[in-house]
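User: Hey, quick favor. My workstation is busy. Could you predict this chain's structure for me?
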Amino acid sequence: MALSWSSSMSLPTTLVLLSLTQFSIAQLSTCGAVNCPLDQYSRPGCVVGNTTASELGISSFTSSLSPQPLTWTIAVQSVGGPLNTFERNFFIGTPPSLNLTASGSSQSQACALFFEGVAAYTEFPGTDPAYDQGTCDDALTQGCVNDIRTQAQTELVNIRSGSGENDSSSPAFVCGKLGETLRDKAPTTCTVASDGRWGDILVRPLTGGAAASPIKQGECHPTTGKDYNLTLAASNRVDAPSRNTTEVGAILFGVTPIMTIVYKGDEPEPEIDLSCLKTIGPKANTTYNE
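Assistant: No problem, here it is.
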């Protein structure tokens, strides 16, 4: 399956350190769960910023950034064109009381790594990739999840403490280095990473001045929190070699592991959450509890 994956955003790389506990809570369905309006052809479509998506997936997780759960949302839309291009957009949902762009030494810093290089080849167990749901343990195996978390924590400690560069504590430096380090050093338990390589890892800041601001939302509100803000964290354009159902389905319903990292000053216990996010077919209206 020859799929072409490329980042369509040049957000600065950023972020940091995390603890080894997984806090992902739930995966929700597509437009059926958030009441997407119908277009003139009776097809559901959710307008989020500049994205009009018919395929959505929502996952909740807890973090020290907020006493309320945060959410990840994936929204996929067809861009069209001769290369049969799709855009996979990732949004973080936050309560109104949380200002991710605030800066200062007392503020926690955070970033996210999107393992898009394996999304087309990662799936949950089941019989229908459009509707199958599960956890990272299901998609990657529990051994892989444990090993990639342990590896990330070790590398983060080394990056933050072992560099003599002036920006060694900045999210951009730390997470950029982490992404570079992990990309070609997948644990042997992570068999989804071909030849020990994760492929493209998008690294994006979630906090501080380099972080994006919340976007304007319309009638559709693809997050689980009431009045939550949505911020576009990352975007990836993918070309399918044909309109073959299998090849297009891998783009629409592939599973992306997302590593969310949070740290604060010199606190020794950073957080690492690993969520596995995908869109869910439009007929699915249930919540999957991890």
